[in-house]
Amino acid sequence: xxxxxxxxxxxxxxxxxxxxxxxxxxxxxxxxxxxxxxxxxxxxxxxxxxxxxxxxxxxxxxxxxxxxxxxxxxxxxxxxxxxxxxxxxxxxxxxxxxxxxxxxxxxxxxxxxxxxxxxxxxxxxxxxxxxxxxxxxxxxxxxxxxxxxxxxxxxxxxxxxxxxxxxxxxxxxxxxxxxxxxxxxxxxxxxxxxxxxxxxxxxxxxxxxxxxxxxxxxxxxxxxxxxxxxxxxxxxxxxxxxxxxxxxxxxxxxxxxxxxxxxxxxxxxxxxxxxxxxxxxxxxxxxxxxxxxxxxxxxxxxxxxxxxxxxxxxxxxxxxxxxxxxxxxxxxxxxxxxxxxxxxxxxxxxxxxxxxxxxxxxxxxxxxxxxxxxxxxxxxxxxxxxxxxxxxxxxxxxxxxxxxxxxxxxxxxxxxxxxxxxxxxxxxxxxxxxxxxxxxxxxxxxxxxxxxxxxxxxxxxxxxxxxxxxxxxxxxxxxxxxxxxxxxxxxxxxxx
Length: 496
Ligand SMILES: Cc1cc2nc3c(=O)[nH]c(=O)nc-3n(C[C@H](O)[C@H](O)[C@H](O)COP(=O)(O)OP(=O)(O)OC[C@H]3O[C@@H](n4cnc5c(N)ncnc54)[C@H](O)[C@@H]3O)c2cc1C
Ligand code: SF4
Fold this sequence. Notes:
22 helices; DNA Cyclobutane Dipyrimidine Photolyase, subunit A, domain 3; 5-stranded parallel beta sheet; Serine Threonine Protein Phosphatase 5, Tetratricopeptide repeat; 3 domains; mainly alpha; Rossmann fold; two-stranded antiparallel ribbon
């Protein structure tokens, strides 16, 4: 009789369609799922984030058991004690797991004697990426995306991009200065008895609103979310991708990052569905291309960049040391754009890309917030958070702390941009057009102050030369500096 194995399943590997679970032999193999007390107590997790992970683990345990698979589902002090328990239960079975998505996680499990199989949750192997693109100092996302599209054949016709263009982003930059809704309401998944039990087990003092069924926790819910994303959201995706509205928090974004990052969906499934929907007609090419670019382009590029550059945690190219502003934990601020973004995080453990980059990220960039302080906060508050995706996005894209390896220029934003792209400024006590004085928009003041403070750091970036010159020539630079000092002090005190 064949010797069995015990398959350790981590909370971001919950799909049975990939990895060791997809090859399980129920007659000899067993599964262990561990809820680590240490990890749960480690940080002030958003209620919906912790709920989604624990509920996902418990639903999977129940599904496997119902299919006659031997399952050990544990609440242990930590991962090590859980693994010891599994070894005691099945001493003859080696423990295998799909490799964790961080290098620290891989080292930890290897030290505990776990055999690591390759991570099958992505389209691209970071080693292949390094071999193909590693020699170049900076491989642009665009180069990578074209290679990815060509090899997968998505939105391709006779070896050429459908419609003759690789990039239709120019059609996807419409603002929403008057607010309003775009696209359908998000899908809600029914909460069941397992969800109720998870909620009863959560510490009572966690931040964040209770779950409303927004986040899929099983494979079948994830597939329903994918159907909804393709059939209902995709036709609207794109034109207002970069906009923000007080009336509509999701604004035709797919909400697929959480199920993708929990391992409940594979990016190939998403890409295949986008391609098929476009070929069937009814979905504009710009929408299909816009979403495909996010999934097979940005997501995979970021995954490979995480592994290509091991120094993310130490990167701090602009010398940013400010602690995270208190508003991020209290939610209290008069800045209407920040208040709306933080409210979305509080209510849904999520905001879309632009509030992350242009409201939360740009404020921290311009104020000089310590990169890992922002990463830590996002890790606890966002349902789709994962170290591999946050380090490049927060440290590189939002905070330009990697010296410009990921983003070609810092995403600093003044009130004028936020005002063009959203309806937030209409209800704000600050004025996006003012740079100085008590009602000046903090983003506008900090935008000019940031350019002034970092003239030397950014001097070599030709994409910034126009803005840097404009800052140098500002006649009111002295007043801007003065107002910026007041703004930063108020930000630190939580009175902005
Ligand atoms: C400061 C900052 C922090 C971020 N933190 C995270 C994070 O912790 N987890 C996370 O998954 N994404 C993160 N992102 C990327 C992006 O904002 C989210 O993936 C997206 O907002 C999730 O919403 P959605 O699923 O509706 O995505 P959609 O807008 O519908 O996009 C579709 C999919 O594309 C992928 N995607 C799009 N852009 C990116 C990107 N830049 N990096 C990686 N994947 C991308 C996601 O998987 C997403 O589900 C971050 C971006 C920024 C600027
Ligand atoms: S005025 Fe400034 S602070 Fe207020 S919403 Fe607009 S950009 Fe945000």
